[in-house]
Design brief:
Layout: E1 5-6, E2 13-16, E3 22-27, E4 30-36, E5 40-47, E6 58-62, E7 72-77, E8 84-90, E9 96-100, E10 104-106, E11 111-119, E12 121-126, E13 132-138, E14 143-147, E15 155-164, E16 177-186, E17 192-194, E18 197-199, E19 206-209, E20 214-215, E21 219-223, E22 229-234, E23 245-249, E24 259-263
Parallel strand pairs: 9-15, 16-20, 16-21
Antiparallel strand pairs: 1-6, 2-8, 3-4, 3-6, 4-5, 5-7, 8-12, 9-18, 10-17, 11-16, 12-13, 14-15, 19-20, 19-23, 21-22, 22-24
Length: 269
């Protein structure tokens, strides 16, 4: 029997799964299989080979493959299951460190916008009012990295697998990644060398455009003339692009007024 494959719309949202059915999602580098039984949900996932696939790729289809055939599999037992399943994209639970293709110098008094692409997590939940969260899964496994001037000052982050770009058109469009515009302002009298950038992903909301591209609000990083502090400002609205935007998820952590002050060497290096 030919399996129905769905490549339209979004890979996230609310779905109904019939009893004893298996559904497979392929979202960028992730394979996800969900199986529903009378009293159980089975969830399994594994990486697939096209980690650097530039296509805006995803698909959903019926499958005969059982979740138990994958190494990462879990069972969730209920009195009964209703068939309601939701998948929600999320930003990372730690900051992500991104690099430009090559380090560059931002001249005194100048500013530039970088476009940073970051991999997402997905949250699998069942039911409604309230939903019961079953699992949170990284679509692409990221390496741990420490960012800071010493082992005593800094924080544990994820290392990005892609480079930030100066031009949005140069950034590959991928279904499993979100784009953040980062405006960097150098208000000092000296040149700013940018080799690495600490993007505060847990502080960012998640939006989707009319073309299904995922975005976050703009982040503005300002280095002032005096001192070793930098201002980090997060917009409370979607980025100013040509497309309509809809919010999908709130930030994991809240910032009251959208402005923070951080030590310069915990944001840039």
């Amino acid at each position: 029997m030919t399996k129905k494959i769905d490549k339209t719309g979004s890979w996230w949202g609310d779905f109904h799964i019939e009893n004893e059915k298996n559904i497979e999602w392929r979202i960028g580098p992730l394979k996800l299989i969900v199986r529903r039984l009378n009293n159980e949900w089975h969830i399994a996932h594994e990486p697939i080979n096209d980690l650097d696939n530039n296509d805006f790729f995803w698909e959903k289809k019926d499958t005969d493959q059982l979740p138990d055939s994958l190494n990462n599999n879990s069972r969730y037992v209920f009195r009964d299951t209703t068939g309601q399943l939701s998948i929600t994209p999320q930003l990372a639970d730690r900051p992500i460190i991104s690099r430009p293709l090559t380090p560059f110098n931002l001249m005194a008094g100048e500013e530039v916008t970088l476009y940073v692409s970051t991999s997402l997590w997905l949250e699998v939940a069942t039911g409604s009012s309230p939903k019961k969260i079953l699992q949170s899964i990284a679509i692409q496994r990221l390496s741990d990295t420490w960012f800071g001037p010493s082992t005593l000052e800094g924080e544990l982050c994820y290392a990005s697998t892609t480079h930030c770009r100066l031009n949005y058109e140069d950034l590959p469009q991928r279904a499993h990644r979100a784009i953040t515009p980062v405006l960097i302002r150098n208000h000092t009298n000296t040149t700013l060398l940018l080799e690495r950038l600490n993007l505060p992903t847990p502080l960012l909301a998640l939006y989707v455009s009319s073309s299904e591209q995922l975005w976050t609000p703009q982040v503005t990083l300002t280095r002032e003339k005096d001192g070793d502090m930098a201002e980090l400002k997060i917009d409370n609205q979607p980025p100013n692009v040509a497309e309509q935007m809809q919010q999908l998820n709130e930030a994991r952590n809240k910032v009251d007024n959208g402005v923070l002050f951080r030590a310069f060497n915990t944001i840039f290096s």
